[in-house]
Amino acid sequence: MQALLDVILPVFLVIGFGYFAVWRGWFPDTGVDGLMKFTQNYAIPCLLFRAISTLDLSAQFDPELLISFYTGATVGFTAGTLGARYIFRRNWSDSVAIGFVCLFSNAVLLGLPITERAYGTDALSANYAIVAVHAPFCYMLGVAAMEIARADNRNPAILLGKILRSMFRNALVIGIALGLAVNLSGLPLPGVLIDAVDLMVVAALPAALFGLGGVLHRYKPEGDSKTIAMVCVISLILHPAITLSLATLFQLDRDALRSAVLTAAMAPGVNTYIFANLYGSARRVAAASVLVGTAASIVTVWLWLLLLP
Fold first, then answer.
1. What region does 186 belong to: left with phi over 0, alpha with psi -120 to 50, or beta?
2. Is 27 exposed, middle or buried (0-12, 13-18, 19+ CB in 10 A)?
């Protein structure tokens, strides 16, 4: 119970403040769009740039860590896609969009602050290693599957071009790529630039959590309750269970195991709705799953914290 009070509730209270402020009309709905654009396109890319640029890549990019997390993510994507297709009889385009909801954990807006509050800032290195691969991996898998499902064009060159354009238009991917470039090149950055980036970083997570609450106010869990329940089970239980099993099998160190499992246990991120909206597929399921999954994760994350060493 203490973990729930000390670690999880402060994060969700900030989300709740954003939800309540928009619901009561104290914060305009149009302001939510601006706030999320600021955090998603500028502040969080700065956070990722700063973290990746100073990360010890040789120590933190452990293949077994990434295999543990992304095997669970891929199984979740496959289970969600096939479940939507063969259990709920959705078309292939909808099924891939639903699979993407199961795939894309909210690794940044929820995973980073919850891990930091649970285990401290020093425990975030493995989180950043996962996050560095997260958007590129998920978009590559999701876009490739969707383009194949829609069968607009099976030319491999055209398909690859669509995947790369989707990935490198994403501000998070750009922030990660720039951070990797600085890290690998050893390029020294001016102190004044670092100070400016750090000012953006300080604002990133609190503003993003408040904005996430405002975004969630728009989502109404109407219909498709069984499909949404399937998504939540896959995202909140199956993915972290597979990650924990593999991390234990690989004998990952305690910090890496904690980061991998907690990140896997996060609810679907807002990007899942953006993906569904981009293709006009399963938008209601994606939107409602973000809302229901985020609310349910208050309990499920607490349970995972109790299970972790």
1. left
2. buried
3-state secondary structure of 268: strand
Phi, psi of 268 (to 5 degrees): -60, 145
Per-residue pLDDT band at 155 (split at 50, 70, 90):
low
The closest of 93, 241, 88, 73 to 141, measured between CA atoms, is 73
Spatial separation of the C-alpha atoms in residues 221 and 239, rounded to whole Å? 22
Answer whether 300's CB lies under 8 Å from 236's CB: yes
Phi and psi based region of residue 177 (left: phi greater than 0; alpha: psi -120 to 50; beta: remaining): alpha
Spacing of C-alpha 284 from chain mean position: 19
212 in helix, strand or coil? helix
- Are 134 and 109 in contact by the 8 Å Cβ rule? The answer is no
At 105, phi and psi to the nearest 5? -70, 155
pTM of the model: 0.82
What confidence score (pLDDT) does residue 59 get?
A: 62
CB proximity list for 24: less than 8 A, separation 6 or greater: none
Residue 116 structure tokens: 């930091």
- Quote the CA–CA distance of 126 and 65 in Å, as a whole number: 8
**CA nearest neighbour of 69 among 134, 21, 17, 115:** 134
